[in-house]
Amino acid sequence: MSARGHRATARTLAWLLASACALWVWWGPAGRAQAENRVTMRGQYYRETSTRILQPQVTVTADAPDERLTLGAGYLLDAISSASIASGAAQITGGDKVFHELRHEVTGTVGSRLGEWTLGGFFRYSTETDYISRATGVSVARDLLQRNINLAFSYGLNLDRWYRIVNNLGVRQPWCGGAVPPQGCHKDGLGVGSNFLQVHLFGLNYAHALHKTVLASFHVNYAHQVGPQDNPYREGLLGGIEETHPRIRNRVVMTPSVRWAIPKARLVIEPFYAFYVDDWGMRSHSPELRVHGRVARHVLLRGRYRYYKQTGAFFWRPDGQYVDGDAQCTRAHPENCATADVKVMPWDSHTPGVQLVWEFDGIARHKGLHWLEGGFVEVTYNHAFQHNRYGNARIGNLALSLAF
Q1: How many domains does the chain have?
Q2: Which end of the chain, N or C, is more open, meaning fewer C-beta atoms within 10 Å of its C-beta?
Q3: CATH value at residue 235
Q4: For residues 26 and 74, is the Cβ–Cβ distance under 8 A?
Q5: What is the model's pTM?
Q6: Range(s) of the domain holding residue 33
């Protein structure tokens, strides 16, 4: 599997399993203001049989001068190492070897808390060897009934340009999808003959405090994607045929959730469920349970378990028989579609995980350590038992956050 394939897989899985929270996090949580200056350094690690991903990240938020205006900035480096033969890319690399790719991402955010209203916005620029992405978004939220209800809406727009690496020197050409020949693909303009992918993202969240210890919420996320969405490096798994996916995709995720606090036991029980559906014929169900506990005055422990199951896309063919069609791939003409993409096959997974958070407030009382007040270190580990070609995955996260 190519690095781009795994990068796309990580994005899709995150979208399927946590899209109810993703826009909420990226665009500044609409239900609460950033009431302090903070710098957070985070390192994420993903490892499976043929791929390793390292993601160091740093984010900074600061009030200017208070919660009425909060500014933020972030940088992420995505370092991917992946074996090439799994994607049929040996003809490009000159033999089976490890691909190394770097993705650079910078993000700017702005937020404001004005009475019962919370406003937010962001701009993100991301670039790698074979793509350039620009994204922007806004969010607005309103507290109601003495802040017992919060209603929030968000919108985001991704504008991407995709390319294909054609030799071991890093030379690239525009990629418009497998149905468009290289000579007919352009790196500018719009439409079928361009390498332009646009994604519109809409999010709606309703949160309601049903009791002083019970918070319920319901999130709906809709995405409309137009442009090349297939992988230019996977023809080795299709007998030399270019992979071809539909150029249009509509996705919906609905996520109800509950948080139930048990003060005497110092526990929070958090069950939620995500249902995904799209017009590629895919469905997924993802129930999850998280249990948060304060095991010591300044130590938090969280355990979680998630089950994920999805159906295949209408153009997934388990027998491996593909047709090299000359027209666009659509539901009405599946004979023009070809794929070996694990992301659109039927599969399921089990993911247990644990997280430990140590708050620094306890040691910040000592002389010379006051600057640690409000800070914490967070360690997370998840193990995904995946029943697909990727195999099992190990996912780790280490974060250090300091207030200033």
Answers
A1: 1
A2: C
A3: 2.40.160.50
A4: no
A5: 0.85
A6: 3-403
